[in-house]
Amino acid sequence: MFPARGIPHHEEARHGHGRQSRPHVSAGRHPGLDDRALGDTVRRHRRLAGLSQAELAQLAGVGKTVVFDLEQGKATMRVATVLRLLAALNIRLGWTAPTGEPGDA
């Protein structure tokens, strides 16, 4: 139920000319989702797991300021970083996209 040690790091996609892409997520630009909601969820689950911000950061392979920033509602953050933090807390994230069929928004 709580995080397992040794979270695997995700390889980042490379696009053109060998430069790494840096996808970011900003909840503030999407209706019904604010920047604080994700941070509040991470904080709640981190505390339920009995982890400090530094311990979560270590499990996720990120700096402890990243956890602090997310919990404080930082407006933008790399998608790969958010996914590592969520994985360390065993939080699954679902994605939906239109299929291109008539009636899709």
Please outline the major beta sheet. 2 strands, antiparallel
Averaged pLDDT: 75
**Rg of Cα set:** 15 Å
CATH overall fold name of the domain at 24-88: 434 Repressor (Amino-terminal Domain)
Unreliable stretches covering 5 or more consecutive residues: 1-28
Number of strands: 4
Keywords:
two-stranded antiparallel sheet; 434 Repressor (Amino-terminal Domain); single chain; disordered N terminus; 4 helices; mainly alpha; about 100 residues
Account of the protein in words:
This protein is mainly alpha-helical and 105 residues long. 38% of the residues lie in helices and 8% in strands. It is elongated, with a radius of gyration of 15 Å. It has a domain of 65 residues: 434 Repressor (Amino-terminal Domain), CATH 1.10.260.40. Helix 2 crosses helix 3 and helix 2 packs across helix 4. The strands form two sheets. A two-stranded antiparallel sheet has the order 1-2. A hairpin with a 3-residue loop joins strand 1 and strand 2. The N and C termini lie far apart (36 Å).
Short description:
The chain has helices spanning 35-48, 53-60, 64-71, 79-88; strands at 14-15, 19-20, 24-25, 77-78. It is mostly helical and 105 residues long. The strands form two sheets. The chain has a two-stranded antiparallel sheet. A two-stranded antiparallel sheet has the order 3-4.
List the helices and strands and how they pair.
Elements: E1 14-15, E2 19-20, E3 24-25, H1 35-48, H2 53-60, H3 64-71, E4 77-78, H4 79-88
Antiparallel strand pairs: 1-2, 3-4
